[in-house]
Amino acid sequence: MQHVYYISGPMTGIAYWNAPAFVKAAETLKAEGHQVISPVDLDEEVYGVGCHYREIPNFNRADALKRDLCAILDRATAIALLPGWECSSGAIAELAAAKAKYITEIRYL
Question: What is the pLDDT of residue 56?
Fold first, then answer.
């Protein structure tokens, strides 16, 4: 079954906001025929392509989390969790939103 996966994982405090891990996960899921929602892509829509490889001026974590939670609630049918997700307050909130929506397809990458 094809899903719309939201990719969740740690970003804060990791080099390049962990963007390489998100990109790799997106490539894997897309190769399997799934659609993907990635916070890296959502950030690039706001701050420009490659924003994770430089300092993001005026970054607002609360706005980003609100946007990400809305993406989960509005469009996701599955969630993929990157290593270290359990130490990320944002990823924990994203998983909680997915579970509140009764998403049962939870994948650990």
Answer: 82
**Which residues 6+ apart lie within 8 Å of 3 measured at CB?**
34, 35, 77, 78, 105
Separation between Cα atoms, residue 17 and residue 14, nearest integer Å: 5
We report the CATH number of the domain holding residue 92 as 3.40.50.450
Helices (H), 52-100: 61-75, 89-100
Range of the domain at 74: 4-108
Alpha helices in 6-38 (DSSP H): 19-31
92 is written with which tokens? 């924990």
pLDDT of 11 higher than 90: yes
- Quick check: 29 and 5 in contact, CB under 8 A? yes
Confirm whether pTM is higher than 0.90: yes
Contact yes or no for 108/25 (Cβ under 8 A): no
pLDDT digits (tens, 9 = 90+) for 25-37: 999 999 999 999 9
